[in-house]
# Entry
Amino acid sequence: MSSNRLNDAALAQLFLDARTANGFTDEPVAPELLQQIYDLAKMGPTSMNCQPARFVFLTTPEARERLLPYLMEGNKAKTLHAPVCVIVATDTRFHEHMDKTWHDPSGQQLFAGNEALAAATAQRNGTLSGAYFMLAARALGLDCGPMSGFDAAGVNREFFPDGRFQANFLLNLGHIDSSKTFPRNPRLAFDEACQVL
# Structure
């Protein structure tokens, strides 16, 4: 066993005991905690350090109400009452920042001249970064309720009218209300999901 292995309590907090939050307590989430989460999550690897994820924090009821017309019915109440809802988005022109994030200037031109490659890279790495963000939030003591039940085109029109950012998924953040937690669903076994070649 590696000496660098996280202890059992840390593994439980990140994975084994962590649950998808379907409801939250009234305990607020401090703005500085959102920055701490981002500062951890941004250290997760992305291809060519492209960092295409963008995070829009909806921290007021008025901001979250702007989402309501675009949410599936089952996601409306829990989003309105969550302390924070994060729009995890991707920057379609992420490569414009690569003069700061990548050591080779040609990286910017690679994506600027290939729209399909840029779109696939943004989607893949933006999703990875969203997952890093969830783990960072759990590591700092928050609970997460990720959602894909929404009208992405509507959210993009409402929040990103210039078209540069594209909503990927939504993430409610706060402290879980365990009374609203569903029983855990089964996971596939190793031999159902994995191959060792």
Remarks:
- The longest strand covers residues 165-174.
